[in-house]
Amino acid sequence: MADATANGLTAEPKSGPMMAADGRTLKSSLNRALRREKLRALALIAPLLIFVLVTFVAPIVDMLFRSVENQIVSETIPRTVDALADWDATSTEAPGEEVFASLYTDLVVAEEYKRHTRLGSRLNYELTGISSVFRSTGRSIGRFDTDIYTDQFIAADPAFEDPTQWSSWMADDGLRTALPLTADAYDAWVGIMVEVKEDDPLEEDIYDFVYTALYRDLAAGAVPAGMPSIDVSGFETVSLRELFIDEDDAWMNVEIWQTIKTYSPSYTDGYFLNAIDMRNGPDGAEWRPENEQLYIQLFIRTMWMSLAITGSCILLGYPIGWLLANLPARTANVLMILVLLPFWTSLLVRTSAWKVLLQQQGVINDILVWIGLVADDNRLVMINNATGTIIAMTHILLPFMILPLYSVMRTIPPSYLRAAKSLGATNWTAFWRVYFPQSVPGIGAGSILVFILAIGYYITPEIVGGTKGVFISNRIAYHISSSLNWGLAAALGSILLILVLALYWAYDRLVGIDNVKLGG
Amino acid sequence: MSGPPIYATTGQRIWFYGFRVICGLIFFFLIAPIIVIIPLSFNAQDFFTFTPEMLRFDPAGYSTKHYADFFTNEAWQVPLMNSLKIAPVATLISVGLGTLAAIGLSQSHVPFRRAIMAVLISPMIVPLIISAAGMYFFYSRIGMQGTYWGVVLAHAALGIPFVIITVTATLVGFDRSLTRAAANMGAGPVTTFFRVQMPLILPGVISGGLFAFITSFDEVVVVLFVGSAGQKTLPWQMFTGLREQISPTILAAATVLISISILLLATLEILRRRSERLRGLSPG
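Above: the input entities. Below: the structure tokens describing the complete assembly.
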């Protein structure tokens, strides 16, 4: 190797690119080494990166997706959604027979798959009461008087009763094109037989809704070749619109149809509008009525309380940071333990402590009564309201303010203050004009950190916040586990996430993520 | 700094002591709520405040019955066991993958370093409720919601930023020529890693591991959503205890947890002193 290098150098002493040992140019050899080093670094990082992408980033992306996803309507009642395309959403009249006939097919199918109640609950988020309409109609849809079509077809030609015969008709492409509604209904029926009933479609009686579709096709003037020709003009008919309205006159209500039409696309901004107290009306987005508005106020309260917590953390953290930075290292290290112990103590322990202390029969009230500051029958209410949340969370987040403040203040030379004073500044001027501006980066870093943490807090507000001291996160948890409105939970979560990421970006610009320090 | 300078004026003296009193009060605010829990957990009554007997230091006012309950009652022991089953496995995953990645990140030429770092740190920045919601939706989609491994993976993801941060910080002070020297003397990459690099960065790895452990051991929001009754952990049990009206056993549980934190804090402090001594940063 040494020889080769020596040869390379001596063989071409004059000009030309410098050569490495293996005969390549030095430049490409270096590039290769660099590339290999990069690949090795990436190979070391890759397992963790993939792990985090799968276990953490994918769930977040999934949540963002869920906040706009709305396939349930077009999946559950696809025919109705198609038929509604022609209906004018601003009209004052419920849609006509065509739409109801499509809804009939959709609901029969959805009822068999037990999907209509889920759709009902989904639409109920947008229009209260719609869920019970779907549930009650779903219950009775099997008993609609559409069997008159079945009976009339079978009376006209017994071949219509034979499932095998149907199967061969529906295998014929010419017939399928001539009878689109029938083919579609028959396929849905076969689906029900195979997937839900687990029966053989060649042996079971065809359901009424297929005959109804066949009647609609024939009445529209279809001429099926290869099927017994039936003249349906003399058939006794029944209006599906009437049947629906007889079952529940809410179907006459235009609002229901507007809601279905508005929420029929596969993606919706409805959850986001909901999350900022708006909704989709017939003329686009509009504000919800005053008494249904909730979330903007909740966002404002979350911000306001997080600001109050950040403020009190600055107020309490600044003197401590100053003290620790100006004491000799040995004493500061001992006092630091008083900051680090709460930092390391379980969040639940600290929250329990505050719950115990702040109760009306708790330690603080007992002491106040004992001193005589508060009358026994007039104990302070410090829990289950905003005060409780602010006190407990200030305590919990204070170390996150003190640690960055301390690390910034430690770097400010005390001689600056002495210099300012020797130049004639008063104590206050020296502090305010010389020391404070240098500690601002610490305040900024600590504030953003505390604010980011506060704004997404869940546990402490849930336990000491009552109803007046809860945050947006508590509402998100409520929608996930109690009201099951996952789309709205995801939309609220996405808004919160964007807020936090913006702050995180600011933090990164100010401090740099690499400079996050843990516990001194 | 045992007192104000000898030439201080009266006003400066007042300020000097006044400031110390204020700081003392703030320290009291920080530490008192945690300390108060400890005597309360020895209450002989089922109250959450000091009984007159306790204030008179009457031995009859004190008992260890809440501890007996904590250590015998299924309702507390099962969650404790669950916590001890979940946290170490999650820690192992975070430390194993995290240390490797931190070594990769500390190489001199890493493409997309900032972006990768941002992704790896993100579990610490994203509010827990959002992580919990996302994981709940996603893990139910892939059938891992309510399983042991679902909770372990979720906790491992949450612990990773802490491992990355502590280990990269340790690697900053690591002398790269040592690995080159080892390689020069014929050690393969694996030998170099385990015999040269690992022993030197071990304090950072251990403190990262402790952070990851406490993250999982303390975590309640994510396990509340991703876990099911079979994975109920100790913090979860405390959370339900606090929400629905509570048995004072919770104070005994809290005291046990405080002891664990003191132990962890002491370990970390020892590690920190050791590494500072090794780097020659601190005299003692």
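Note for the figure: The two ends of chain B are 20 Å apart (CA to CA).
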